[in-house]
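Practice problem 4.
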């Protein structure tokens, strides 16, 4: 059977899939390959279904979704498909071939449940059903068609997954030119929930405040070039991150934090609200060592940026500067 060759080809491994998760997929794929090799046809059908379910569960777990071990096959498959399908984007209509083709692959994979129930392992039987070449081949083709598509799409999904991206921003992962741009594009920031937009923005702002130039250029300066692509919640988060570090301390990059904040707020619908919230946080925050040592430069940069602030936020920005100056050592005021 031609499927003997198909199950020898390696599956595409998406970056950021953990080793133990990939081991689960490899185990299921190895079982399918072994069943095909020894022509154990009921096991071929059963293993094809198990492979799809394993890939679907790994997809959901990798994306940060909680999956109960008792969730039934069609539910897990449907949720996993929606995760990898969303990368296509909302602009592609439901009847577009780019949605219809993967949807057809999902329907084929869905039929594996009934094939397994009729022919595969996993059930004690009173009658043995003959598993023809056609049945075995249909099971393998249906499984591998969806599995290979889903794993290839998963790479793009995880490229833009918020939690891994926030973790990389916080943990000092190196971002070369184009890295953050690609991951933010894959994240589809406008399509995220506001809480996720804000969380991502905070992480970008904090990393930029730690003088990572590529993050500043691709996560902040890009907002000025295409303001329509960057929602309010993301801008709000970035402004906070530019002045408050992960420990909740006042922290800033003298050469960029103030200018970047002014630039971001130019296209925010309520910049005064963002600064009012920032003012409340800074009022009770201790100062990081960087802020302590460079507060004179930081405050000067904030004063210089005041003319760039939206008019409705100008007064609040000035009050933030005054409050920080009041807390500075006497000789530095």
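Answer key:
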């Amino acid at each position: 059977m031609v499927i003997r060759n198909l199950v020898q080809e390696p599956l595409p491994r998406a970056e950021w899939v953990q080793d133990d998760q990939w081991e689960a997929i490899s185990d299921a794929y190895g079982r399918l390959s072994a069943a095909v090799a020894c022509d154990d046809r009921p096991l071929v059908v059963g293993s094809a279904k198990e492979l799809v379910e394993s890939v679907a569960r790994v997809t959901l777990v990798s994306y940060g979704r909680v999956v109960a071990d008792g969730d039934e096959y069609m539910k897990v498959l449907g949720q996993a498909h929606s995760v990898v399908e969303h990368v296509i984007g909302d602009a592609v209509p439901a009847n577009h071939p780019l949605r219809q083709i993967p949807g057809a692959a999902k329907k084929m994979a869905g039929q594996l449940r009934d094939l397994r129930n009729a022919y595969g392992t996993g059930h004690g039987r009173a009658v043995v059903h003959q598993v023809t070449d056609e049945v075995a081949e249909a099971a393998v083709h249906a499984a591998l068609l969806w599995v290979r598509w889903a794993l290839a799409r998963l790479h793009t999904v995880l490229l833009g997954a918020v939690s891994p991206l926030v973790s990389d921003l916080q943990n000092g992962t190196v971002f070369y030119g184009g890295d953050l741009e690609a991951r933010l594009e894959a994240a589809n920031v406008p399509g995220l929930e506001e809480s996720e937009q804000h969380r991502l923005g905070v992480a970008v702002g904090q990393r930029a405040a730690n003088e990572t130039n590529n993050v500043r250029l691709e996560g902040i300066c890009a907002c000025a070039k295409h303001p329509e692509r960057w929602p309010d919640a993301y801008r709000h988060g970035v402004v906070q991150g530019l002045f408050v570090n992960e420990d909740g301390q006042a922290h800033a990059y003298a050469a960029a934090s103030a200018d970047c904040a002014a630039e971001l707020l130019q296209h925010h619908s309520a910049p005064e609200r963002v600064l009012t919230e920032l003012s409340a946080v800074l009022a009770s925050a201790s100062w990081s060592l960087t802020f302590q040592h460079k507060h004179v430069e930081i405050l000067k940069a904030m004063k210089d940026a005041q003319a760039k602030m939206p008019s409705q936020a100008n007064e609040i920005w000035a009050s933030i500067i005054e409050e920080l100056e009041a807390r500075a050592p006497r000789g530095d005021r």
